[in-house]
Design a protein that fits this description.
Two copies of one chain form a homodimer. By secondary structure, the first copy, chain A, is mainly α. The longest helix of chain A is centred in the middle third of the chain and has 27 residues. The first copy, chain A, contains nine helices and no strands. Chain A has a domain of 132 residues: Tetracycline Repressor, domain 2 (Orthogonal Bundle), CATH 1.10.357. In chain A, 63% of the residues lie in helices and 0% in strands. The interface between A and B is large, with 108 and 107 residues. Chain A binds a DNA duplex through helix 3.
Chain lengths: 238, 238
DNA sequence: GTTCGACCATACCAGTCGGTATGGAAAGTT
DNA sequence: AACTTTCCATACCGACTGGTATGGTCGAAC
């Protein structure tokens, strides 16, 4: 029996702190987390934190690494059991959509990180490296599926870029339109994303080939409601 | 000659404060702007600011309205001279891509706003209203072009959603991959976005129809570099 | 057992920021 | 002119935060 708690080996302190930082940043955002909270969750105090990390900013970069590693492990696990190339792509997309739409920690952390990127070159570089890795991952999936004849040929990299942009935008949209989290909507979004790869070269329609039924399709939005009312102007006081 | 500066009419004070807030939020982000700076840019002091606005948060909503109005005016001006439906859509997309990729104020402001949305229902509701207005605007453009036979038929709303998500993701990506701001790249991205609307119903390719030339398409990424190295772990100190 | 360095806690500092209290000037009303 | 309302400036408070100074503890080497 050991009377004293026997403090944990110091070697695992940096990862523990990084994990605490990641969790808290993901829960409240970078600006709303202070160092005392991060240290407390890791079981130490701020003084110890500063022994392992130079600043709050350095802790953020460590938290980014946790995020990268966790994403990579999760998506690899999601596609591992699938042998078919198109199935692997679909599984990866399904996992990504699901996590973008439901995982609020993911949303909060990346949003917070994007804000910091605006003024922090280190965070920019780190994310750019992560994005490049994700892109290569998806390009590999798409190219394999194309080579296997499960997808029509086309510029895989450019389509992956479009898909990843839509994925990131979807994550933001899920923050204020929660209905995209419904299973049916998720499936429809997944189909849209998959459609990016399933289409051939887009056929451009020249001017002048107006169909006879054109007059049947009416402008679906009443012209009077086109102005964005936005939120109510808060300038008037009671 | 008037000796005194003759203070401006109070009626225009709320818009001036909202504009100052918008500019500063767009330059530095919500958390890094204080009320003294906002008041100073509007030519008053914090005490006066609090006469017109109840809190920093209320000022944020007012700044949102400025953003909404400015976006709407700018995009309307961009498409006004175009009579052809497809041209109007293209012009709107070109304007949006251009502003997403180059306008760092736009990027900073919306990113900051997205972070606040995570915990502020008011900001969420305001943005949702703005997003709905933008979506209806684009759905109108697309439906008109479809009715005129300049675009193939298809679910306009769902395609607009996909396009808007990609647009928002593009804005984020432009923050850490500045090469997307190059004109040629902008054009390519514009083509990708337009392609969302120019494609018909995506043709699903069933399994087993492997083309004879499948072995010619090689995996374009060397398999050894698939692992994301991410940023260097900052846990080790010198 | 002494020493030394890695590791951690306590206390504290210097600065910042949102928000308030208060009084005075300008403009309108009677 | 006297009075009220609207609008704005000054001064200030209280809470919080990133970062530091300093001293203590524990284990291992000698």
């Amino acid at each position: 029996m050991k009377a004293k708690p026997a403090r944990p080996p110091a070697a695992q302190m940096p990862p523990r702190l990084a994990q605490s930082a990641f969790e808290l940043f993901a829960e409240r955002g970078f600006a709303r987390v202070n160092l005392d909270q991060i240290a407390a969750r890791a079981g130490v105090t701020k003084g110890s934190l500063y022994w392992h990390y130079r600043s709050k900013h350095e802790l953020l970069l460590a938290a980014c690494n946790r995020y990268y590693q966790q994403w990579h492990a999760a998506v690899q696990a999601a596609i591992a059991p699938r042998p078919d190339p198109l199935d692997r792509l679909r599984a990866a997309l399904e996992f990504s959509v699901h996590s973008c739409v439901l995982d609020t920690q993911n949303r909060m952390f990346t949003t917070s990180l994007f804000l910091l990127m605006q003024e922090d070159a280190g965070a920019r570089a780190g994310w750019a490296q992560f994005y490049a890795a994700v892109r290569e991952f998806y390009v590999g999936l798409v190219a394999t599926a194309q080579a296997a004849g499960r997808l029509p040929p086309g510029d895989a990299r450019r389509r992956v870029d479009l898909m990843l942009e839509a994925m990131e935008g979807l994550k933001l949209r899920a923050g204020f339109e929660p209905q995209v989290a419904q299973p049916a909507e998720q499936q429809a979004i997944l189909a849209s994303l998959l459609g990016i790869f399933q289409t051939g070269v887009p056929q451009t329609m020249p001017a002048g080939m107006e169909p006879a039924t054109a007059h049947l399709h009416r402008h679906p939005t009443p012209p009077g409601r086109t102005q964005p009312t936005a939120c109510t102007p808060p300038s008037e006081r009671s």
